[in-house]
Amino acid sequence: MAFQPDDLLSEAALQAAVAALAERNQHHLADMNEVERSDAVGHWRELAMTVLTAARTAAAGPDVGGSETGGRAAIVLEDAGGDEITVHASFYPQLEDLGGGEVAATPAQATALELLEQLAGEDESDPED
Fold first, then answer.
1. Contacts for 3 with CB less than 8 Å, ≥ 6 apart
2. For the chain, domain boundaries
3. For the range 80-87, what are the long-range contacts, defined as Cβ-Cβ under 8 Å and sequence gap of 24 or more?
């Protein structure tokens, strides 16, 4: 079976990434109590998901629809326990900060940003002038 970019977001890939981070930081883990270890593993899981989401976005290839100027955005929603979810987002190419709270984005990226604002509950309807 051929590798697919979505394989990077599998539970097995996520667990492997967290295990690698735990092994790399085992000297810190040894000095932590159980609550601190749990917090560290949770942080590494979020970090791993962010990295894997970015890798998945890049693995789809830079050429979208035959155009070098195409952009992509990936949003991953992950159950975080109870009613909570964790949201991860990745953009290719990276968003460009224009200052003043503005970013340069492709249409797909701009749409993803709007969706993220709605998910965060920050979608404020501004009256048109």
1. none
2. 5-120
3. 86/46, 86/49, 87/116, 87/119, 87/120
CB atoms within 10 A of CB 129: 3
* pLDDT reading at 50 higher than 90: no
- pLDDT category at 129 given cuts 50, 70, 90 is very low
Torsion-angle region of residue 41: left (phi > 0), alpha (psi -120 to 50) or beta? alpha
Rounded to two decimals, the pTM is: 0.59
Instruction: Record the tokens describing residue 65, joined without a space.
Output: 């629809």
DSSP character for 10?
S
What percent helix, strand, coil does the chain show, rounded to 5?
50, 20, 30
If residue 84 lies in a helix (H) or strand (E), which one and from where to where? strand 84-92
Region of residue 49 (left: phi > 0; alpha: psi -120 to 50; beta: else): alpha
99 Rama class: left (phi>0) / alpha (psi -120 to 50) / beta? left
Report how far residue 102's alpha carbon sits from residue 116's, in angstroms, rounded to the nearest whole number. 15
For 1-26, what is the mean pLDDT?
Answer: 89
